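User: Run a structure prediction on this.
Assistant: Running it now.
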Amino acid sequence: MKLLQHDVAEMKSPHLVAVRRLPQHIWDFCVHMTQRYADDGCQSTAAALTYQTLFAVVPLLTVMYAVFNAFEAFNNLAAEVEAFVFSNVVPENVVNLQDYLHDFSTQAQSLGLPSLGFLGVTAFLMLFTIEKTFNEIWRVREPRHGFQRFLMYWAVLSLGPILVGLGFVISTYVLALPLITDVTLATGALGYVPIFLSACMFTLLYVAVPNCSVSLKHALVGGWLVALAFEMAKYLFGFVMSRSSFEVIYGAFAAVPLFLLWIYISWSIVLMGAELVKALAVFRPDGGAAIEAPLFQVVLILEMFFRAHQQGSLVTEQDIRDQGARIDLERWNDYRQSLIELNLIRSVDRGGLVLSKDLSEVSIWDLYRALPWTMPDSLKGQGNWEACLALHFQNITEHNRDLLDIDLESLFRLDFPRAEVAPAAGLNCC
């Protein structure tokens, strides 16, 4: 009786049910994200990016100096920003590399055009790897091309230093205000500036780099969590390494392996953040129980476009996420690219997608032949057109089963001489 009353109370209080299931949902989300991190090969990618970063860090510093020197307001600020970054982003154990990197970057600024071009290519190759990795995480098959890719790369290379410089200028200005009476409070508040700048940088990275629409809300969540993870990793890294014996083993070169290890940890955190942003958009607490077979998912997507076409409206990425309870959002970019290649939908300048072909000219058989997915055995929908289509799929399945209801031995015996074997019962092949 008490159990029945408890069940009734839960039915009357859906919020209570949601709270009780929250720990399980969080656990399932973490498992999903970790599994995707492993499946996408992010660990190997982090190692590759570590190697490329070792060569690209000097060109990136050179670009930062060039960006600051291009703006009169930021003149002579590059060195201060560099010191700010190394003191707030990089653990203390590897800060002594700052002088070497600064010397390398200063010498790079005096190089000739071919050498500068080589350094620029090195930096762009690292960004190319990052873009390729992010597109694989978001299942984007079509990368940016030409000038569009160059603009995205240049935006990341230029806006990053500007954000850091702007934050540093604001911090210095606030500290210098003569009207401030509680300087200690202001200094404590400014201690959060590195986290804020890191969150802005990571949010920009997650929104701008993938060649698809990424929810700004999800990117902000990922950016802030990754920024906090960086702060914790920096503290733990410094705490552990300060109690290790690296200097005894490597001597004066101890900073080099520590620097490489920190870069690897940093890229691992960044890629885990990318998986987090993606998972926030595609994860389903129910495990995707309502998701249809791939071919029928495409039919449902086309129905969404048909209804939008009847109303004279666009279909946006958010519409797909909001109405796609039966659509595997993990594969939405694949579906979109396939439909674009079949000239069934197209992008428009207003930031959405529209129907580009009369659906009276497209049959289910056309989709079946053009797409790499089998016909579903059953459908989960209850609509009239879905019931009709489900009946057709059922008839096709039964007909195919009758045609292929033949055991393999009887089939293989067709190549034996007729005198050696008796014809199999019920087998009639020409």
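The CA atoms of residues 86 and 98 lie 7 Å apart.
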